[in-house]
Amino acid sequence: MAVFHDEVEIEDFQYEKDSERYSYPCPCGGNFCITWEDLTNGEDVVKCPSCSLIIKVIYDKDQLTCGETVPAPSTSKKLVKR
Question: What keywords appear on the UniProt entry (predicted)?
């Protein structure tokens, strides 16, 4: 069983559009990296390639359908009291 250095939410990762992967800085100076494909395949453990640290990625599997991101709610709508 792996001992995780940390559990990190996918929202805290930086998405790198050119390489189509998510990255998160490691304390050693390296980066933890995971792809959308890895996540859709149920992979949620990432090892830093520069050291021995391992993290667990926390994400909502339901939001990974079709590779789409969930849009933010519109701020232009007004609430109407009845």
Answer: Iron, Metal-binding
